[in-house]
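Anyone? Bumping this.
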Amino acid sequence: MSGILNRRSLLRGSLAGITASCLPLSLVKLSFGATAPAKDFTFAFISDSHIQHVGGNEFVRNWDRGLIRAVAECNLMSPKPDFVVYGGDIAQLALPQEIDHGLELMSRLNYKTYYVMGEHDFYLDMGEYWEKQLGPQWYSFDHKGVHFVVLNSVLTYDSWVNKWASGTERMGVMAGLDDPRGSPFMVGEEQRRWLAKDLAAVDKSTPIVVLSHSPIQKIFKNWNFWTEDAEEIQALLSPFENATVLYGHVHQIQYNQIGNITFHSAMATAWPWPYPESYAQADNALPVLTVPMNRADPFFERDATGWQFVDVWSGKASVSYSLPQNTSRTVAYDFEAGRPVDTKYPQSLLPPQDHY
Amino acid sequence: MKRAYCILSAAVISWALLVTNGVFAADTPLGLPPLIVPLDNQITVAKVELGEKLFEDTRFSTTGEVSCATCHDSNSGFTDSPKVVSEGIHQLTGTRNAPTVINAAYMKHQFWDGREPDLESQSAQPFLNPVEMGLTSHEPILDVIRDDRTYRRMVRRAFSIDPDDVTMDHVQKAIASFERTIISGNSPFDRYRYGGDDTAMSEAAIRGLVVFEDDGRCVSCHTISQSFALFTDGKFHNLNVSFDSISEGVENLVQAYSERRAAGTDVDVDVLTEADVSELGRFAVTGEWTEIGAFKTSTLRNIEVTQPYMHDGSQATLEDVVDFYNNGGAVNEGDQINDFLSSGIRPLDLTDQQKLDLVEFMKALTSPEYASSDIAQ
Amino acid sequence: MKHNLTLSLILSVFFFHSTPAAVADEFTQDDIDVWQAEYMAVVQKGRDLFTDPTLGNSENGVVCAQCHPNGANTHPETYPKFQKQIGRVIGLWEMVNWCLRNPLEAEPIDAASPDMTAIIAYMAHERRGVALEPGKH
């Protein structure tokens, strides 16, 4: 990354040039004008490690290395992030040993971490072990004037949950992204009622950040890039001036703007997924705004994987992606355009990097 | 500085080298691609001869005892094998093992950490390094050239300039031109794979080639292509070689060196004089977290005669190297693996026979002109 | 000899008159249905292997479908092609074996084996309708 512009950005290593001073001038002016600088903060976002048990004390080396590297690099951040969010799918088949091994690797992080439930953490025992280790499956917290909401957005219809002979079978089916026997994700009525109550107590000018595993949008049903009650959740967020949804699950960079809500996805530390357009037999609704990542190079194990950190100012988020051996990318909120924009690739990537 | 390059046709190389004493190969060596030469530094006999003289001249050091050839000796595969790390003026040691000049002309980056992009810019650095030649500026070099009758004649012939007007740019271009003639292929492997000679390699080496391409997965980084083999992907990888010396407190080291880079520092001096900075590898050059502890993939051509191995010369024999990779990047099984290890490095579970064969294969990468080196394996 | 020839000539005229004309490679819709079912069975087998954690005696249980849901991003329509990272022109089967050896930490499969055919059939089937572009990077 060239064009280093200030000392603070330099100390972030490969993410040099990501800070406010490198954004279009309009953003900088507005962001400093709109809120007191002390309220601006940064948190890191690591997601989708899919720690996979092989046998005995052995786990899939590839996924382990991805998380180890993300944690090690995150520890290098300077200035330090305020906290870390883990976006879900720390395990692959929700086995206790997988959750434990993942948490052990995460324990090397020097910061407080908030965890989000993913389907790969959940469907073996409906989240029982995860809860035991990590606490409630949905909750909220406040930080420097921003209201954070953590949802379990990978629930599904009870009839589907109950039709399997065992938790193992159920988890195995849900673990297959493209398994036609799967079932769409949702937040569900119980959580929606809780969310409505939780948000009722929050001033409409308070920025909201929703941390979710599924996208709270309907992008591609084949691969469960989908939340069945997306519209209902969006409706609950619509009264707020600044609402952002951060989600995992998709293992790729996506971003979108629906009304007042900005959406950002997280990359996986484990492996990348192709964009839905790569599947020729189904249509998809990938947000038009998204400039996709380059097509992953399988010969470089960490290509198109990584982690990200989120800068919050003026109630909006900008997400900076740390991509191994690749140009780092920042998707920042453009106040003039009223939507997120990639600061490096305003239109699209050049061929032959396209997915096809 | 961006250079325009062109592919020098075999015919032009032949013409340019026609009047030499027959030492240089007139065509692209078997197993190598056509050499790419910068448009602003075409190879000529006059430049090559000047470059060779400059390369061997010990007057360009404070003690008058160190030249490029001191660490890049043509009798030792253009390295200072068997030295672990190189020794400059006053036998001062650096931190890194001298890479070979042979086929360096094909590299996209020079130095173990790629801190210079080409042969021209690389050649200027060692003169100014305190543990190499020790000069504080390039002026003494130009003084020597201007005052030496032979140099004056050679400079005039090579660049059609008044020798009083000689600059470091000329020096660098001459040295680079000389180095571009230090290319070699036509090893037993080349004759086997590209020359169609099934008898060119021993049975063991042929088995070793299979290990290299399959179970060993060496080709992932030490590349073999359809019509040539450079044996390097030109990329930088963290293999866990000697990283344990900085594992404790790597966060502080990274932070501290990032600040030094921001304030402006001479990376060339730092990496050769400070062992812990040296272990940061390419990170010291680019500041990229993903390149912490990463070093350039070496070519394996002539590897038999350029021992010891790795960026710090810490692996003495090819057998040691094979064991290291077989252990998944560990000298001893169970050694600590650092957090920044390059993907793809993992235990190989090779049999003893496969390991022996792999070493035999690597010995088959020695070009005939270096096969009679006086370095014993 | 001449007698037999005459006889066969008469017989052949007789047969040509009394039966429908023979056509090379004759098949009916029933045949097609049978063959299509055979093909889909192999495609299904390919899908099974695509999700089989023991494929190639894998050391780590990783399956193709983890990174290639519905075979996406395998690009069967572009093979054979110069595979940059391998440094030469390869067919799709070689890439399958590369994946087996590397991310799946398994043993390669013989190119001529029914398993390889099945895996290729699955990938091709999921990519049906996409124009051939051999050599495309």
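Late reply, but here is one note on the structure posted above: The radius of gyration of chain B is 21 Å.
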